[in-house]
Amino acid sequence: MARKLSGSIGRANERPLPPMNLVGDFGGGGMMLAFGMLAALLHVRGGGRGQVVDCAMTEGSALLMAMIWGLRASGMWSGERGTNLLDSGAPFYDTYETADGQYLALGSIEPQFYKLLLDGLGLTDDPDMHEPMDATHWPRQKTRLAEVIRTRTREEWAGLFAGDACVAPVLSMSEAVANPHNVARQAFVQVGDVVQPAPAPRYSATPCAPPVAPCLPCSDNPELLKRR
Asked: Which of 1, 75, 108, 113 has the least C-beta neighbours within 10 A?
């Protein structure tokens, strides 16, 4: 009996991968609701009437996949998990283990980035790496990339590419805080003893105030009573 395929996130021939709760609770839920509320407020500001914003995280999550549905409709996305362009099927859009047991992420879809990838890996003249969009070559190309990337450490590869070719080291949460790009952008802040993402997006005219630690329950009652 043929196995029924289900799920869209995960590698081929493996169980579907839970995307933490980023897709449902936060992306399809909270962020979609915030977008809907702001759109409704703009409608009111333009002279329209107030209205109920009906936001379901299941529908929001489906909407996040609008591009994938479009690829599916055009015959560019199969129903088999982990065999497509963006779901670990393509060799140039995946993660690979390095010599030190860490991982390197590739996202070199565009021709100019794919060329830089091959140049950096020393595979420019390798005939196995030609025709990257031909899925029949992907298994062989994946094997070749895995062999080469395993010859150096994650930091060696990161230094070699230095942000080019859409190649980047896969970082832990602690490493992400110390990443030079994130440090330069001040992407993380520390509130008390808690390190957390800084407010985003950023506004030129009305910058977000830095976050503050919450008060203990009832600890601010005297101050609140004084404001009455």
From this structure: 1
Structure tokens of 206?
């009305």
The pTM of the whole model exceeds 0.85? yes
Rounded-to-integer distance, Cα 26 and Cα 20, Å: 10
Q: Tell me: the pLDDT tens digits for 22-71? A: 999 999 999 999 999 999 999 999 999 999 999 999 999 999 999 999 99
Q: What is the DSSP string of the chain?
A: -PPPP--SSS-TTSPPPP-TTIIIIIIIIIIHHHHHHHHHHHHHHTTPPP------HHHHHHHHTHHHHHHHHTT-S-SSTT-STTTT-STTSSEEE-TTS-EEEE---SHHHHHHHHHHHT-TT-GGGS-TT-GGGHHHHHHHHHHHHTTS-HHHHHHHHTTGGGEEE---HHHHHH-HHHHHHT-EEEETTEEEEPP-S--SSSPPPPP-PPPPTTTTHHHHHHT-
